Amino acid sequence: MSEIERESMEYDVVIVGAGPAGLSAAIRLKQLDEDLSVVVLEKGSEVGAHILSGAVLDTCGLDKLIPDWKEKGAPIKTEVKKDNFFMLGEAGHIRIPNWPMPPLMNNHGKYIVSMANVCRWMAEQAEELGVEIFPGMACSELVYGDNGEVKGVVAGVFGLEPDGSYGPGTEPGMELHGKYVFISEGVRGSLAKEIIAKYDLQAGRDVQKFGIGMKEIWEIDPEKHREGTVTHTMGWPLGGNAGGGSFIYHLENNQVFVGFVVHLNYKNPHLYPYMEFQRFKHHPEIAKLLEGGKRVAYGARAISEGGYQSMPKASFPGGALLGCSVGLVNVPRIKGNHNAMLSGMAAAEAAVKAIKADRSGDDLIEYEQELRSGPVAKDLIKVRNVKPMWSKWGMLPSLVLGGFDMWFQSLLGFSLFGTLKHGKNDAQATEPADKHKEIDYPKPDGKISFDRLTNVSFAATNHEESQPCHLKLADEKLPISVNLPKFAEPAQRYCPAGVYEVIAEEGAAPRFVVNFQNCVHCKTCDIKDPSQNITWTVPQGGDGPNYPNM
Asked: pTM of the predicted model, to two decimals?
């Protein structure tokens, strides 16, 4: 616990993060017991500010949480009407028919949504039930109890000196204590990372795997717009350099979500995920769609890809990890919001049962058991081998074998492959630069493709410049002494916001520069840095991207 004197507030349940998992937990807690005191703390300037999501939503979680969501006016309107899957070459494409796809891959009956708007709506539902929601409140520390349990969090610290010390203008924040604390920070959150390490929650589980997802929102020519159309692609431009692919979702109002995912276990440190995204948009089919249109927003976020075998133990003394803090994305479906909601509800149900039994601060093992055996597990266990197959055998073999494995498990309930392992983590997968060729990327044209810093301005990201840098280097010399000569310092390329630079001035030694003001909170640096020298921590509340309400 910090030695700084702070006021404290007591709640039954404290929830960190107003995403689909945290809000589902809050709503379910109040549905089960309206007298419970529940608070949700959100680091974004408002609910949804840090969620740029072109998502196809499976409403199974929301159906269970709020069965009458349509009548309540949820911003879920655009039902999927057409589902395309393309294999791209540099100049053409092949459409893969839907009929050989396992049933779980079918998007018909799902909805194209802005998860930012869905979360804003969910926050309204929670507040109507009496949940307290405080945006702009970054949770920077955990508070531990006398028995080593998580007792609460420190939130709302503002005005630290540049060196991280407390000055005359520093607001020390508050401690918010709960009988249970739910951590729903999203992928690779700093509090979840601390909890997983402290309680050894990854013991006996496989390593977690990640991807970097970059997204743009476009307004396109109405004649080209096909509301309700979903398209996914594989192949070019990544080829054999990395796993990944794209998605293009046509929602209402002539808007299109254009996204590109690169698996972070790529070997070549010269690979530049952001520029792969920009190059992708110049494929003839994609360029034809976007020409004459206007990009209106940009953002990026890491995606958990490890699946069932990589989930850490989700309960710990004093609380639970929810949603992407556990890693509940179904990789082949590119869906995780439904599992995030289901995990939030399961944690809430376990907490209510415990509180009614006069328990507090203990391990909510009932939640861990439900997560491992309930609907979330049933969704993830069928696809658990798809990611390791791709990593081991490449795109085409994994497409065939992964499809077979999903069909086999859907029909017979088990896999002939057992449970495949992932092997190295994504940082360890990076190989020395001298083993690989540099990649020549075309210059963005400013119409369909854009330079990185211009695009970052469309994330509306902002960080108060006098605060401490929230990107912590364990060794400030290492980027130049080790990463530059050995790996060509890949931070210059893997960051989708241009945070990291190597400045080489004539007659002077190269310098490593961290432009933390550009950060869009994707966490890629915390994951992919080959020396594991960078730790992402929360900046002060309200800072970071401010994605549009659209």
From this structure: 0.96
